[in-house]
Amino acid sequence: YDLKNEDLRDIHELGQGNGGSVKKVEHVPTGTIMAKKIVLIDAKPSVRKQILRELQIMHDCNSKYIISFYGAFISDPNICICMECMDKGSLDGIYKKIGPIDIDVVGKVALAVLEGLTYLYDVHRIIHRDIKPSNILFNSKGQIKICDFGVSGELINSIADTFVGTSTYMSPERIQGAQYTVKSDVWSLGISLIELALGRFPFADSASDDSDLSDFEGTLSPSRLGPLSTAVHRAPKSREEKDKADKKKKRKSKGVSLQGGGMTMSILELLQHIVNEPAPRLTPEDRFPAEAEDFVDSCLRKDPDMRATPKDLLKHSWVEQAKVSNLDLEAWASTF
Ligand code: ATP
Ligand code: MG
């Protein structure tokens, strides 16, 4: 495809993230439906061109567990990345719609993500760096694929410049400033799988006695708030929610206060929790098969030296079961 913005007809918006938005579009000359991700990048033209060059590696990423890439182009001041459109969206959207995801489906998710990570790392030496439910996509054919992996070092740098902050799928060693390794992705996978199985972000009621974090809808993503990277800011949805939030804020003053109104809360507490407290587990103990609990425990070893790699985990008994299971994901997809 020789992609140009004027050949792309907007159909509707698929979602918004911190770095920009994603739209379902039609490539009019060929009739191909695509997902167009628009990333606002505050960088020099030379840097943009470098990013575009680096993104071309995605043309060589061919795996059924990785979203296909159609191309990328600059549309000032944005970079547009066109990829395969997954009609059932991301897994965070799915569980928010249908509730906790059946553990056997979660097993298939684990298998797909591990296959995707192993492919990226073994074939391209790429570490994903952003495994979370919103970056695991699903379609009505029952396919599960990962997207938004760190192919472009320049893109990672530019986004880091723009959005100071952090994400709570981050492993303890990353919070403490260690190098990213493929095992950091395994941690993020463990957190994501618990989130899918429980239907809520696993730290939500454990970080604070007052369950301050219950207001989170799963993600603590990069905050746009410059050096105040220890706080996260989410605009309350309704008047009611705002009143509730304000009351909470008065009751507890641990959250870093930010300008601009809305709700503020401390991410520092959560980061400290991840580093200092035992890792979350699949609980209540008896609701899930022992193999699933053990798998998640293997992902969430706090010491990365003790943590398995994606390749090791492909041999885990729970994943072996997922490989041979005759669960029909296409049929499951048709239920929502
Ligand atoms: P963050 O910005 O914190 O990484 P995010 O992953 O949700 O969060 P985006 O990557 O911008 O942000 O994606 C926004 C939403 O668009 C996703 O949550 C997902 O539901 C949807 N989306 C992204 N890519 C696709 C795709 N290829 N097909 C279908 N939906 C997609
Ligand atoms: Mg994403």
Automatic annotation (TrEMBL):
Residue numbers spanned by region Disordered: 214-260
Naturally occurring in which organism (per UniProt): Antrodiella citrinella
GO molecular function, one term: protein serine/threonine/tyrosine kinase activity
Biased composition (Basic and acidic residues): 237-246
Record keyword Kinase present: yes
Binding residues for ATP: 37
Keywords: ATP-binding, Kinase, Nucleotide-binding, Serine/threonine-protein kinase, Transferase
Protein name: Protein kinase domain-containing protein
